[in-house]
Amino acid sequence: MVGEENAFVGMAALLGLVVGSFLNVVIHRLPRGESIARPGSRCPACGRPVGALENVPLLSYLLLAGRCRGCRARIALRYPMVEALTGLLFAAVALRHGPTPMTALWMTFTAGLVAAAAIDLEHKIIPDEISLGGLVLGLLAVPLAQTATGAALGSAFARAAAGALLGGGLLWVVGFVHARLSAARRRRFEHWPGEGEDFPRPRSLDYWTWFPGMGFGDVKLLAMIGAFLGPAGVVATILVASGVGLVFGVGWALVTRRWDAPFGFGPALAAGALFVVLAPPSWPPLV
To answer: How far is Cα 236 from Cα 43, in angstroms, rounded to an integer?
Structure first.
Protein backbone atom coordinates (compact mmCIF):
# COMPACT_ATOMS: atom_id res chain seq x y z
CA MET A 1 0.00 0.00 0.00
CA VAL A 2 2.80 2.42 0.89
CA GLY A 3 4.54 1.70 -2.40
CA GLU A 4 1.33 2.32 -4.35
CA GLU A 5 0.74 5.58 -2.48
CA ASN A 6 4.29 6.75 -3.16
CA ALA A 7 3.91 5.89 -6.83
CA PHE A 8 0.63 7.80 -7.02
CA VAL A 9 2.16 10.87 -5.37
CA GLY A 10 5.20 10.66 -7.66
CA MET A 11 3.02 10.48 -10.77
CA ALA A 12 1.01 13.44 -9.50
CA ALA A 13 4.21 15.45 -9.05
CA LEU A 14 5.33 14.66 -12.62
CA LEU A 15 1.89 15.60 -13.92
CA GLY A 16 2.12 18.85 -11.97
CA LEU A 17 5.45 19.70 -13.60
CA VAL A 18 3.92 19.22 -17.06
CA VAL A 19 0.80 21.18 -16.15
CA GLY A 20 3.00 23.90 -14.66
CA SER A 21 4.81 24.21 -17.99
CA PHE A 22 1.45 24.72 -19.69
CA LEU A 23 0.39 27.21 -17.04
CA ASN A 24 3.39 29.34 -17.95
CA VAL A 25 1.93 29.64 -21.44
CA VAL A 26 -1.45 30.59 -19.97
CA ILE A 27 0.11 33.14 -17.62
CA HIS A 28 2.07 34.79 -20.41
CA ARG A 29 -0.52 34.78 -23.18
CA LEU A 30 -3.97 35.02 -21.60
CA PRO A 31 -3.59 38.59 -20.25
CA ARG A 32 -2.31 39.65 -23.68
CA GLY A 33 -5.32 38.23 -25.48
CA GLU A 34 -3.19 35.66 -27.32
CA SER A 35 -4.13 32.08 -28.13
CA ILE A 36 -2.79 29.54 -25.66
CA ALA A 37 -2.79 26.85 -28.35
CA ARG A 38 -1.03 28.48 -31.30
CA PRO A 39 1.72 29.15 -32.12
CA GLY A 40 3.89 26.77 -30.15
CA SER A 41 6.20 27.87 -27.35
CA ARG A 42 8.52 30.70 -28.37
CA CYS A 43 11.11 32.91 -26.72
CA PRO A 44 9.33 36.13 -25.64
CA ALA A 45 12.46 38.13 -26.50
CA CYS A 46 13.42 36.92 -30.00
CA GLY A 47 10.40 34.83 -31.05
CA ARG A 48 12.53 31.74 -31.68
CA PRO A 49 10.47 28.49 -31.44
CA VAL A 50 11.33 26.42 -28.38
CA GLY A 51 12.19 22.84 -29.26
CA ALA A 52 10.83 19.84 -27.38
CA LEU A 53 14.15 19.20 -25.62
CA GLU A 54 14.24 22.84 -24.52
CA ASN A 55 10.78 22.59 -23.00
CA VAL A 56 11.30 19.89 -20.38
CA PRO A 57 10.01 21.24 -17.04
CA LEU A 58 12.76 22.44 -14.68
CA LEU A 59 15.48 20.40 -16.40
CA SER A 60 15.61 22.57 -19.52
CA TYR A 61 15.89 25.75 -17.44
CA LEU A 62 18.87 24.28 -15.59
CA LEU A 63 20.59 22.98 -18.73
CA LEU A 64 20.11 26.30 -20.52
CA ALA A 65 21.39 28.18 -17.47
CA GLY A 66 18.24 30.25 -17.48
CA ARG A 67 18.85 31.76 -20.93
CA CYS A 68 17.35 31.44 -24.41
CA ARG A 69 19.44 29.14 -26.59
CA GLY A 70 19.11 31.57 -29.50
CA CYS A 71 19.37 35.17 -28.29
CA ARG A 72 20.70 34.38 -24.80
CA ALA A 73 18.05 36.54 -23.19
CA ARG A 74 17.28 35.65 -19.61
CA ILE A 75 14.35 33.30 -19.02
CA ALA A 76 12.15 34.71 -16.27
CA LEU A 77 12.53 32.89 -12.97
CA ARG A 78 8.75 32.65 -12.92
CA TYR A 79 8.88 29.74 -15.40
CA PRO A 80 10.70 27.18 -13.20
CA MET A 81 8.98 28.53 -10.08
CA VAL A 82 5.50 27.89 -11.51
CA GLU A 83 6.53 24.42 -12.69
CA ALA A 84 8.04 23.49 -9.32
CA LEU A 85 5.14 24.96 -7.34
CA THR A 86 2.53 23.14 -9.43
CA GLY A 87 4.43 19.88 -9.12
CA LEU A 88 4.65 20.22 -5.34
CA LEU A 89 0.99 21.18 -5.01
CA PHE A 90 -0.19 18.28 -7.17
CA ALA A 91 1.89 15.91 -5.03
CA ALA A 92 0.40 17.42 -1.88
CA VAL A 93 -3.14 17.06 -3.24
CA ALA A 94 -2.48 13.43 -4.15
CA LEU A 95 -1.02 12.73 -0.70
CA ARG A 96 -3.90 14.49 1.07
CA HIS A 97 -6.84 13.10 -0.92
CA GLY A 98 -5.54 9.90 -2.52
CA PRO A 99 -6.94 8.34 -5.70
CA THR A 100 -10.51 9.58 -5.29
CA PRO A 101 -12.94 10.99 -7.87
CA MET A 102 -12.40 14.48 -6.43
CA THR A 103 -8.61 14.44 -6.70
CA ALA A 104 -8.56 15.28 -10.42
CA LEU A 105 -10.89 18.21 -9.73
CA TRP A 106 -8.73 19.41 -6.83
CA MET A 107 -5.74 19.35 -9.16
CA THR A 108 -7.65 21.30 -11.81
CA PHE A 109 -8.75 23.76 -9.13
CA THR A 110 -5.14 24.07 -7.96
CA ALA A 111 -3.90 24.77 -11.48
CA GLY A 112 -6.51 27.49 -11.92
CA LEU A 113 -5.52 29.12 -8.64
CA VAL A 114 -1.82 29.10 -9.54
CA ALA A 115 -2.54 30.72 -12.91
CA ALA A 116 -4.92 33.29 -11.42
CA ALA A 117 -2.46 34.23 -8.67
CA ALA A 118 0.48 34.62 -11.06
CA ILE A 119 -1.51 36.73 -13.54
CA ASP A 120 -2.97 38.93 -10.81
CA LEU A 121 0.47 39.40 -9.29
CA GLU A 122 1.92 40.60 -12.59
CA HIS A 123 -1.02 42.30 -14.32
CA LYS A 124 -3.49 42.97 -11.47
CA ILE A 125 -6.27 41.22 -13.39
CA ILE A 126 -7.91 37.80 -13.15
CA PRO A 127 -9.13 36.58 -16.57
CA ASP A 128 -12.75 35.44 -16.80
CA GLU A 129 -11.57 32.31 -18.58
CA ILE A 130 -10.14 31.17 -15.25
CA SER A 131 -12.62 32.55 -12.71
CA LEU A 132 -15.89 32.08 -14.59
CA GLY A 133 -14.70 28.89 -16.29
CA GLY A 134 -13.73 27.52 -12.87
CA LEU A 135 -17.05 28.66 -11.44
CA VAL A 136 -18.99 26.65 -14.02
CA LEU A 137 -16.77 23.62 -13.43
CA GLY A 138 -17.24 23.89 -9.68
CA LEU A 139 -21.01 24.21 -9.93
CA LEU A 140 -21.41 21.25 -12.28
CA ALA A 141 -18.54 18.80 -11.90
CA VAL A 142 -17.86 19.01 -8.16
CA PRO A 143 -21.36 17.89 -7.06
CA LEU A 144 -21.26 15.01 -9.53
CA ALA A 145 -17.88 13.86 -8.25
CA GLN A 146 -18.98 14.18 -4.64
CA THR A 147 -21.86 11.79 -5.22
CA ALA A 148 -19.24 9.08 -5.74
CA THR A 149 -18.17 9.59 -2.11
CA GLY A 150 -21.72 9.18 -0.83
CA ALA A 151 -23.05 12.74 -0.96
CA ALA A 152 -26.64 13.29 -2.09
CA LEU A 153 -26.70 14.98 -5.49
CA GLY A 154 -29.23 17.64 -4.47
CA SER A 155 -27.36 18.66 -1.34
CA ALA A 156 -24.05 18.66 -3.24
CA PHE A 157 -25.44 21.04 -5.87
CA ALA A 158 -26.97 23.22 -3.14
CA ARG A 159 -23.64 23.35 -1.29
CA ALA A 160 -21.74 24.40 -4.42
CA ALA A 161 -24.32 27.08 -5.26
CA ALA A 162 -24.38 28.38 -1.68
CA GLY A 163 -20.58 28.55 -1.62
CA ALA A 164 -20.46 30.47 -4.89
CA LEU A 165 -23.14 32.93 -3.75
CA LEU A 166 -21.50 33.45 -0.37
CA GLY A 167 -18.01 33.86 -1.84
CA GLY A 168 -18.93 36.25 -4.61
CA GLY A 169 -21.59 37.98 -2.52
CA LEU A 170 -19.36 38.78 0.45
CA LEU A 171 -16.67 40.49 -1.62
CA TRP A 172 -19.26 42.24 -3.77
CA VAL A 173 -20.94 43.74 -0.70
CA VAL A 174 -17.59 44.91 0.69
CA GLY A 175 -16.59 46.50 -2.62
CA PHE A 176 -20.01 48.03 -3.26
CA VAL A 177 -20.37 49.59 0.20
CA HIS A 178 -16.82 50.96 0.05
CA ALA A 179 -17.49 52.46 -3.38
CA ARG A 180 -20.73 54.11 -2.26
CA LEU A 181 -19.15 55.56 0.88
CA SER A 182 -16.19 56.82 -1.15
CA ALA A 183 -18.50 58.44 -3.70
CA ALA A 184 -20.56 60.06 -0.94
CA ARG A 185 -17.38 61.59 0.48
CA ARG A 186 -16.20 62.52 -3.04
CA ARG A 187 -13.06 60.53 -2.41
CA ARG A 188 -11.08 59.68 -5.53
CA PHE A 189 -8.49 56.98 -6.09
CA GLU A 190 -5.70 56.62 -8.63
CA HIS A 191 -7.85 54.60 -11.04
CA TRP A 192 -11.34 55.38 -9.73
CA PRO A 193 -13.50 56.89 -11.04
CA GLY A 194 -10.92 58.04 -13.63
CA GLU A 195 -9.39 61.37 -14.52
CA GLY A 196 -12.07 63.84 -15.58
CA GLU A 197 -14.86 61.30 -14.97
CA ASP A 198 -17.76 61.58 -12.53
CA PHE A 199 -18.61 58.87 -10.03
CA PRO A 200 -20.67 55.99 -11.50
CA ARG A 201 -24.45 56.36 -11.38
CA PRO A 202 -26.98 53.60 -10.60
CA ARG A 203 -27.99 53.34 -14.27
CA SER A 204 -24.38 52.49 -15.19
CA LEU A 205 -23.02 48.93 -14.99
CA ASP A 206 -19.87 50.40 -13.42
CA TYR A 207 -21.96 51.49 -10.44
CA TRP A 208 -22.53 47.82 -9.61
CA THR A 209 -19.26 46.24 -10.74
CA TRP A 210 -16.46 48.84 -10.58
CA PHE A 211 -15.02 49.41 -7.11
CA PRO A 212 -11.99 51.31 -5.80
CA GLY A 213 -9.22 49.24 -4.28
CA MET A 214 -10.70 45.90 -5.38
CA GLY A 215 -11.13 44.45 -8.82
CA PHE A 216 -14.31 42.63 -9.76
CA GLY A 217 -12.05 39.73 -10.70
CA ASP A 218 -11.57 39.04 -6.98
CA VAL A 219 -15.35 38.73 -6.60
CA LYS A 220 -15.55 36.19 -9.41
CA LEU A 221 -12.50 34.29 -8.14
CA LEU A 222 -13.99 33.88 -4.67
CA ALA A 223 -17.27 32.76 -6.24
CA MET A 224 -15.28 30.06 -8.07
CA ILE A 225 -13.55 29.12 -4.81
CA GLY A 226 -16.92 28.87 -3.09
CA ALA A 227 -18.29 26.55 -5.77
CA PHE A 228 -15.43 24.13 -5.05
CA LEU A 229 -15.10 24.51 -1.27
CA GLY A 230 -18.63 25.35 -0.15
CA PRO A 231 -19.68 27.96 2.43
CA ALA A 232 -17.38 26.72 5.21
CA GLY A 233 -14.45 26.72 2.79
CA VAL A 234 -15.24 30.31 1.78
CA VAL A 235 -15.09 31.49 5.40
CA ALA A 236 -11.82 29.63 5.99
CA THR A 237 -10.37 30.99 2.75
CA ILE A 238 -11.18 34.58 3.72
CA LEU A 239 -9.66 34.14 7.17
CA VAL A 240 -6.40 32.75 5.79
CA ALA A 241 -6.34 35.19 2.86
CA SER A 242 -6.73 38.15 5.21
CA GLY A 243 -3.60 37.15 7.09
CA VAL A 244 -1.66 36.40 3.92
CA GLY A 245 -2.83 39.66 2.34
CA LEU A 246 -1.75 41.66 5.38
CA VAL A 247 1.76 40.17 5.32
CA PHE A 248 2.02 40.56 1.54
CA GLY A 249 0.67 44.14 1.69
CA VAL A 250 3.25 45.19 4.27
CA GLY A 251 6.01 43.54 2.25
CA TRP A 252 4.77 45.18 -0.95
CA ALA A 253 4.72 48.59 0.77
CA LEU A 254 8.29 48.13 1.96
CA VAL A 255 9.46 47.14 -1.52
CA THR A 256 7.65 49.97 -3.32
CA ARG A 257 8.14 52.43 -0.43
CA ARG A 258 4.49 53.39 -0.80
CA TRP A 259 1.80 52.48 1.71
CA ASP A 260 -0.88 53.21 -0.88
CA ALA A 261 0.67 51.07 -3.64
CA PRO A 262 -2.03 48.79 -5.13
CA PHE A 263 -1.51 45.04 -5.28
CA GLY A 264 -3.64 42.13 -6.39
CA PHE A 265 -5.58 40.21 -3.73
CA GLY A 266 -5.79 37.14 -5.96
CA PRO A 267 -2.59 35.50 -4.64
CA ALA A 268 -3.88 35.77 -1.07
CA LEU A 269 -7.24 34.25 -2.01
CA ALA A 270 -5.45 31.46 -3.87
CA ALA A 271 -3.23 30.77 -0.85
CA GLY A 272 -6.26 30.66 1.44
CA ALA A 273 -8.14 28.26 -0.84
CA LEU A 274 -5.12 25.98 -1.22
CA PHE A 275 -4.73 25.89 2.55
CA VAL A 276 -8.32 24.68 2.85
CA VAL A 277 -7.80 22.00 0.19
CA LEU A 278 -4.68 20.72 1.93
CA ALA A 279 -5.82 21.29 5.54
CA PRO A 280 -6.45 18.41 7.95
CA PRO A 281 -9.82 16.72 7.32
CA SER A 282 -11.33 18.04 10.56
CA TRP A 283 -11.14 21.70 9.49
CA PRO A 284 -13.08 22.56 7.43
CA PRO A 285 -14.90 19.60 5.85
CA LEU A 286 -14.76 19.60 2.04
CA VAL A 287 -17.60 17.16 1.46
So the answer is: 40
CB of 168 closer than 8 Å to CB of 219: yes
Write the CB contacts of 29 (distance below 8 Å, at least 6 apart in sequence).
35, 36
pLDDT of amino acid 259: 63
Does the predicted TM-score (pTM) go above 0.85?
yes
C-alpha to C-alpha distance for 20 and 104, rounded to whole angstroms: 15
What are the distances in angstroms from CA 262 to CA 21, 27, 118, 186, 212? 29, 20, 16, 20, 10
Q: How far is CA 43 from CA 22, 152, 179, 245, in A?
A: 14, 49, 42, 33
Whether the per-residue pLDDT at 137 is higher than 80: the answer is yes
Q: What is the C-alpha separation between 54 and 29, in angstroms, rounded? A: 19
Does residue 138 contact residue 228 with C-beta atoms inside 8 Å?
yes
How far is Cα 190 from Cα 213, in angstroms, rounded to an integer? Answer: 9
User: In 10 A of CB 47, how many CB atoms?
Assistant: 10
CA angle, 49 as apex, 48 and 55 as ends, to 5°?
120
| Model confidence band, residue 226 (pLDDT cutoffs 50, 70, 90) | very high
> Which pLDDT score, from 0 to 100, does residue 77 have?
92
Instruction: Report whether 41 contacts 50 (CB < 8 A).
Output: yes
